[in-house]
Design brief:
234 residues; alpha+beta; Lipocalin; 2 domains; 7-stranded antiparallel beta sheet
Length: 234
């Protein structure tokens, strides 16, 4: 009887312990204190619509224009050249001082750079031979591009001095004749003229002729000897 009472007490104790334990499958309480299901937040039209594409920059269009052979190029020299100091193959630079237009459109603007070289440089002689300077241009830069060009040569020759040389001899002869006449009469005049003429000739032989000298800003002209095709904005 005592044994049965102990078994009964032990059984009730186990049942009490099991009843106090919380079920393992019980969901955790919502810490926010709210109940029910959470609805998805609505998406606004502004955030869901794709961003508008940025406008594209306008792309410049170009076309090719052919400048015919024979077109005149009016240039302003930017280099200093001279018949007595320049040498063949010396670089020469110039710019267009007037634009070139085709069909009413400017295809080569004023200021476009033109480059070439000296092709001849001869200084003046004392007895004969006038000074000479020549050049030719072979490239042109316009619209950000450089083109090979073919042009006629530009040449300049010094002014002739024969008339002035003759005047120097005549003046010398006349002065000598006048001095001879004063000193020695008629025969003295003849001798004086010969001596004076010889003196004038000596002055001519000792004096060189003029040189050809062109500095920056000098206006020169050449022309295309072959067609030139350039790209211009359409």
């Amino acid at each position: 009887m005592k044994k049965l009472a102990c078994v009964t007490a032990l059984t009730f104790g186990l049942v009490a312990c099991n009843g106090a334990k919380a079920p393992e499958n019980t969901p955790a309480a919502d810490s926010s204190g709210t109940t029910g299901t959470v609805a998805a937040a609505p998406i606004s039209v502004e955030t869901s619509a794709p961003a508008a594409a940025a406008p594209r920059a306008a792309v410049a269009s170009f076309k090719e224009v052919t400048i015919p052979s024979g077109t005149t190029l009016r240039l302003s020299l930017q280099s200093a050249v001279a018949s007595d100091t320049s040498r063949v193959e010396q670089p020469v630079r110039a710019t267009l001082r007037a634009p070139v237009s085709i069909g009413g459109q400017v295809v080569l603007p004023a200021g476009s750079e033109v480059n070439g070289v000296v092709t001849d440089a001869e200084e003046s002689g004392r007895v004969k031979g006038r000074a000479r300077l020549a050049m030719r241009f072979s490239s042109l830069a316009a619209h950000g591009e450089t083109y090979d060009i073919r042009t006629s040569g530009y040449a300049q020759e010094a002014e002739a001095t024969k008339k002035k040389d003759a005047e120097k001899i005549a003046i010398g002869a006349g002065a000598g004749a006048a001095l001879g006449a004063i000193l020695g009469g008629g025969s003295g005049a003849a001798k004086g003229a010969a001596i004076g003429g010889a003196g004038g000739t000596g002055v001519v032989l000792a004096t060189k002729g003029k040189e050809v000298r062109l500095g920056p800003g000098a206006a020169i002209t050449t022309r295309l000897t072959a067609p030139l095709t350039v790209r211009v904005r359409s």
